[in-house]
Specification:
alpha+beta; two-stranded antiparallel ribbon; disordered N terminus; 2 domains; 192 residues; five-stranded antiparallel sheet
Length: 192
């Protein structure tokens, strides 16, 4: 059983490694992995991440986009953006999923996204609900592998300890019979 306790202790130590705090100084865009929701919003999210910044008490991925005029005015009043990529190129025209009354900060003043002039650059900060540090992903994978190995080892250890040909039922019957015989003998000895 000491081996079993040691194995669970090792799993607990690996779990403690996941609880490390992450700050922007520790991360770059190459150190994070975007979620499927981020890629659904902008398919080149990994290429458009420019920097990791600390802002309002949190860590955010920074994107820069330029508002562009729709190619076809009949497409409606949607907002279209072109994101700047980390290699200096500009991404394709992208229809924004933000509501028209979404507020952005320009010169420390809130301005509706719909009121921003075409050609105006805006910074977009994406929170950690859309990305995970790669180190945490790797540790989670390692922890899953360790847990799987420990479970297999525990199963093997328990299987090795159990008898392979007989169960505990015959022993219970033997002890039960002995207690019945002992009880009968005591009763007979008291009657005499």
């Amino acid at each position: 059983m000491n081996k079993l306790n040691l194995k669970y202790g090792l799993v607990a130590l690996v779990g403690l490694g996941l609880s490390a705090n992450v700050s922007a100084t520790d991360l770059s865009c190459n150190d994070i992995e975007f979620s499927e929701e981020a890629f659904a919003t902008y398919e080149f999210a990994d290429k458009a991440c420019l920097d990791m910044v600390e802002r309002d008490g949190g860590v955010f991925a920074k994107f820069t986009a330029t508002k562009v005029v729709p190619a076809d005015v009949s497409q409606g009043v949607s907002t279209y953006l072109r994101f700047k990529h980390s290699d200096g190129s500009t991404g394709p025209r992208h229809k924004s999923q933000l509501p028209r009354n979404y507020l952005v900060m320009l010169d420390n003043q809130p301005v509706r996204m719909a009121d921003i002039n075409p050609g105006q650059e805006v910074n977009i900060y994406v929170g950690p609900e859309y990305w995970v540090p790669i180190a945490v992903v790797e540790e989670m994978v390692e922890e899953a592998v360790v847990e799987e190995v420990v479970e297999e080892m525990v199963e093997e250890e328990l299987a090795a300890e159990l008898p392979t040909t007989a169960g505990p039922l015959p022993w219970l019957a033997l002890f039960g019979s002995l207690f019945l015989i002992l009880g009968g003998a005591l009763r007979l000895s008291r009657k005499q």
